[in-house]
Amino acid sequence: MSFRNFKMVDYVVFGRGAFNQLDEILAPRRKADAPMIFLVDHFFQGKPLAERVPLRGKDEIIFADVTYEPKTTQVDALANSLKEKFGTVSGVIGIGGGSTMDLAKAVSLMMNNPGSSADYQGWDLVKQPGVYKAGIPTLSGTGAEVSRTTVLTGPTRKLGMNSDFTPFDQIVLDPELTKDAPVNQRFYTGMDCYIHCIESLEGTYLNEFSKSYGEKALQLCQKVFVDKDYWDDESDDQLMMASYAGGMSIAYSQVGVAHAVSYGLSYLLGTKHGIGNCIVMNYLEEYYPAGVKEFKYMVEKNKIEIPEGICKGLTDEQFDTMINVSLGMKPLWENALGKDWEKIMTREKLRKLYEKL
Ligand code: NAD
Ligand code: ZN
């Protein structure tokens, strides 16, 4: 038996206003004549946060268009334009939700690895460390700030660049940055964390490491979405730490049924990760009875709309595409249903589930 020896984020700063320390944090990482590139979620264009980015010398802010989740083509275009313009850069700093943080990780890696990011979708295919990279979340829930992957949609699949070179060198956890997130978005991304916890805690890969983080993350999600009747600064603090702990929990286990099914939706229909997981979770009583019951309660209590009927009118071929993408996520199914998962989750059963969504 051999145990996973996984790479973690090197430096973590947590606190309200921690963003103000960014200039100081980056100073020792700057190389002569190579700028820092700040990849900032396009939501912040023209907003006060963009003014607070500590630009020096030839540094640039690039506003990341995250209307769609990150694509390999988008990563390649960004990395190639930076290489053409600057040769190399001192670092890539991602400021935004999971999409922007994933873009920053992938662009950093592609600054030092040849070819297209699509060549590295999979496990441990990245051969060279990227340039210095830092992640600064403005939404809490994905755990992208701590994970060893960056999820990209490529020409043939939606799959991460999973590697020891993928985690950030630094993360800045400043809950103030999540303050103005819209209620629905905050819920969908928050539920990504809740669902990570349920999938990890109910999974066959669970060990005490995952369990300890998963239980803490779940408790924090319950504090903000079940116990409280209002949202305050403490809720932002708690959800940010839930995301961190939830990410740590799946780092040593895996996600499960909701993610495996939601990946199919996202590949075919472009459904976004957070909302896609919620659409699926609504129908997973059979696999996660207690989690789904509580999930439904949170949806109602927080007055959130979960879309229904998104698979109505799809063709057999389209259902097959989703089923192929989903069943391709073998570790997720194995974690959820055990070694014999293929006998449990047949194509027919999965088709029935997709038809309900
Ligand atoms: P997101 O990054 O896709 O952003 C969703 C929307 O919220 C965007 O319109 C964005 O502009 C906006 N936004 C971001 N911060 C805001 C703020 N403070 N106020 C107002 N609006 C804001 O959303 P997400 O749920 O954080 O991330 C989803 C992405 O994360 C997907 O691409 C998914 O594949 C990825 N993901 C990655 C991992 C990983 O381990 N790498 C894990 C889970 C999900
Ligand atoms: Zn997720």
Short overview:
By secondary structure, the chain is of the alpha/beta class. 46% of the residues lie in helices and 11% in strands. The model has no long low-confidence stretch (mean pLDDT 96).
- Name every ligand kind in the structure: nicotinamide-adenine-dinucleotide, zinc ion
The H-level CATH homologous superfamily of the largest domain, spelled out, is Dehydroquinate synthase-like - alpha domain
Number of structural units classed as domains:
2
User: What is the number of E strands?
Assistant: 9
Briefly note the CATH topology name of the largest domain.
Answer: Dehydroquinate synthase-like, alpha domain
Poorly predicted spans: none
Placed side by side, the strands forming the largest sheet appear as 1-9-6-4-2-3
What is the CATH domain class of the largest domain? Mainly Alpha
Structural class by sheet pairing and helices: alpha/beta
% residues in beta strands: 5-15%
Could you tell me the mean pLDDT? 96
Explain what you see:
Residues 12-175 form the Alcohol dehydrogenase iron-type/glycerol dehydrogenase GldA domain. One of its GO terms (molecular function) is metal ion binding. Residues 188-288 form the Fe-containing alcohol dehydrogenase-like C-terminal domain. InterPro entries: ADH_Fe/GldA (IPR001670), ADH_Fe_C (IPR056798), Alcohol_dehydrogenase_Fe (IPR039697). The protein is α/β, with parallel strands linked by helices and 357 residues long. It folds into two domains: 11-178, Rossmann fold (3-Layer(aba) Sandwich); 183-356, Dehydroquinate synthase-like, alpha domain, CATH 1.20.1090. It is 46% helix and 11% strand. It has helices at 22-26, 48-51, 72-86, 98-110, 183-201, 208-227, 233-251, 257-269, 273-281, 289-301, 316-327, 330-337, 341-344, 347-356; strands at residues 11-14, 36-41, 60-64, 91-96, 122-123, 132-137, 151-153, 158-162, 170-173. A six-stranded parallel sheet has the order 1-9-6-4-2-3, covered by helices on one side. A three-stranded mixed sheet has the order 5-8-7. Helix 5 (183-201) packs across helix 9 and helix 8 (257-269) packs across helix 9 (273-281). It is globular, with a radius of gyration of 20 Å. It binds nicotinamide-adenine-dinucleotide and zinc ion. Residues 41-43, 66, 69-70, 96-100, 102, 138-139, 142-144, 147, 149-151, 178, 180-182, 185, 189, 192, 272-274 line the site of nicotinamide-adenine-dinucleotide (NAD). Nicotinamide-adenine-dinucleotide binds at residues 41-43, 66, 69-70, 96-100, 102, 138-139, 142-144, 147, 149-151, 178, 180-182, 185, 189, 192, 272-274.
